Each structure stands twice: as structure tokens, then as C-alpha cells.
Amino acid sequence: MDEQLAIQKLLRSHLLAAQSKNPKFSLRSYSRKVGIHHGALSAIMNGKRNVSKDLAEKITRKLLIDPVSRNEILNLFPEKRKYRTVEEMEKDEAAPKYLEIEASTFKLMAEWEHFAVLSLIKTDDFINDYAWIAGRLGITKYRSQEVVERLLDLGFLEIKKGELVRVQAKIRSSDDTVNLSVRKSHEENLELAKESLHRDSIQERDFTYITMPVDPSKMAQAKEMIRKFQDELSDVLEAGEKKEVYRLAVQFFPLTKLTQQNLSKDNLQ
Known about the structure:
3% strand; mainly alpha
């Protein structure tokens, strides 16, 4: 029953992590995030109810678990079929390397430090030193080294004449991994914004919002205008002395319950 213990541990650890950030985060709130009734979720976490492999996969996706960790948990579940084809066995042999690449891509897009390092390299006073990078981003030296090495492995950085150089690499991954990593990134954005709200002065940040009645059919036009604004603002700010790394995160979301649920994959990101 290792698979059941793994799911219980996963659910408990994520609940504790959420409650450490927000002590008021309840089991009911957690159940909404996972997509399971709070009574059933409590029973699963306490070992009073088993989960199927399909439900385990749903849980790992809802919790935005990276591909390698998700695969490790799902592989604990017994196979439904005893015999496999040659093609399936060959695919299984290639899976570890593929999943390693998928996990690296997931972490690249989901964890804020990667794009922060890519932007930090473009600042005027950048120093190619793990300790310096760590100090500028407020992370550990080990973490800065881990991030740089992953960027090198994925081809986003190169070392030329002893210096880190940014390369315009392309992200190659499945749509599923990209979608999950983008959602995870949005979660991190909210946490980073919350930290900035309490840490930085109003002269160093800008938090504004507007509430309005809208025509939902103009959502595509709204997205286009937001992205155009982001590009124009980036051009203005990057034209001067590049001394700091900032992140612009624009949230535009409904406060009323949607009357139309025809959401495309792009809307879900």
C-alpha cells in the first residue's frame, strides 16, 4: 500500500505548506483546490479511504506536481494489464530521460528564480558569481547554482570566455507540462506580490486595480491590449540604466460567477 501512503504524505505536506503561509487556510479551501469533497479528502489523508490511480493522477495535477514526482507516485500503483507490447516497453525505457527534461522545463517556467536570473544577466553591473546572484535575489548560493545549471542544461545560457551569456532558446515540452507550469507560476506570482506588499515602499512598487462591468466577448481584445502594454512598458524601462530586476504581473479576472463556461485552453492559463 505504498501508493496510498505516498498520496497521504503528498496531501498532508501541501496542506501544511499552505497553512504555514496562511493559518486560516481550511480543509474546505484545500478540498476546493484539490477538487475532492472535504469529507472524502479527510478520509484519504487519514488512511480511511483508498484512492485509485486515476484519482491520484487528478490530485497530482491539481497540486501542480512536476512530471518526475508525479510519475514516481503513479508508478507505485499496480498495473492494470499484465502484458505490454514491445512499443510500450521501448517507451518505458526512454521515459526517465524524457521525464527529466519535462521536469526541468516545468521548473524553468514555474519557479520565478529562472527568469529572474535571465533578466539579472542583462543588468549593467552583473557579476558572474553564484554568491553575488544569490545576494541580489535573496536566495541561497546553492539555489542560485542550481538555477544557473538548469538554464545551461536547457540551452538558455552559455558560457563564453568565462562569462554567462543569455541565449534565445526555445521551450520544447508537452502542452500539458506547459499548462501546469504556467498555473504554478501564477501561484508564485501572487506570493511574490504579497511579499512585496509588506516589504517594499510605495516608491518602489505600484499596486493598483479597477473594478468594472465588462462585455465578456471582448476578452480576446483585452488580452491583446494587455500584452501590447506589457511590451511597450518593457521597451521604455529597458532603454535606461538596467540596475534592478522587476516583475510585472497583471491580473484581470471575473468577480461574478461566469454564465458561460466555454473556456479554451488559453483561458485556463
